[in-house]
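Thought: the user wants the 3D structure for the chain below. I'll pass the sequence to the structure tool as-is, report back what it returns, then summarize two notable features.
Action: structure_tool
Action Input:
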Amino acid sequence: FTAVNIRKHRPNPRRIVIVGAGTAAHAFLETHSGESNDDTITVLSREPDPFYNRILLPDFIHGNKSFEELRYATDSFARVNVLSGVSAQSIDRANRIVRTDAGEIAYDVLVLATGSRPRRHRLMEPDAKRSVFTLRNRIDAENIKSQAGNNVLIIGGGLLGIELADALLQSGSSVTIVHRSARLMSRQLDATAADMLCSGLLRRGMQIMLNDEVIGLFKRDDIFTAYLASGRRLDCSSVVYALGTQPDIELARSAGLRTNFGVVVDEYMQTSDPNVYAIGEAMEFNRNTYGTALAAADHAKVLAGVLAGDPTVRYGGSIDLNILKVGGLPCVSMGRIPPGKEDEVILLNDEAQGLYKKFLINRDRLVG
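Observation:
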């Protein structure tokens, strides 16, 4: 045998343009900055405030954290130009140009980190002036913080809806959650865990209506009236849609990239165009999309390795990890939730202590 030295291929300096300035883009910049390279990077941030932790927006609404405490550190980023308040309008793939509302930007590598958009209710469009909100960015949070009023209806009982409800409750508002499923966080918790969570939230003073949905929503003067499928009627001062999110793929779709539910990528985070990549909530891999910070970090690490010339990096999917931040009710779920046919289930349930742990084991490996 002959000894062989293997080293990474170092590509020539490139112009990298990133569309989006959220968690995935920040994670990529952190990882990419650790590589020895001479790339120049331009970040397009539709928002005037780039690089902050959206997960903590409920804490900002409650006042537990200032907005400055939500910002990600960017001091270590070299050769990065962040264009705040600049929105990408279209992509000219043939000429490798991104057209923005502030002009054209040429690229060698384009990274789509466009994130996701809140799902909307069919009854009434979000409008801060009418006290109908979604929560996705700083402006949304500031509007809710200043205008929600003392009696808030939250439509949706997922992770965001519960954390927002708790933040408003601690701020002095009366809060009602209407959730169409039979249990809260139905995608992240089993029935036992969801029941324990619901009981804990009721003890904190929330009103929760499960197996129900809003079918009519009207406003007169400053009061909303919500009509539910069950026949019940609720009056409230404001409405917040917490119905989940969907990948923001409009830019990719209009550019002719392959899209499904998200922007379709391969194991190298590459789209149907070899010069365009997608990471974070906007991407789709093997028919799966990912909405967690942990997954965004996985995507960023793979893409940084690919662009650095590392032949060993591949993406194979991410583990779902969900952490509910409600005081006195610690709740974490990860991996598989319903057990598979061959999974071994280990349970620890201590109702007196309010403790419930469930482990799914498959072939001596923890899978959920």
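Final Answer: Structure generated. Helices lie at 23-32, 57-62, 138-147, 159-170, 191-203, 250-254, 293-307. Residues 321-366 form one domain.
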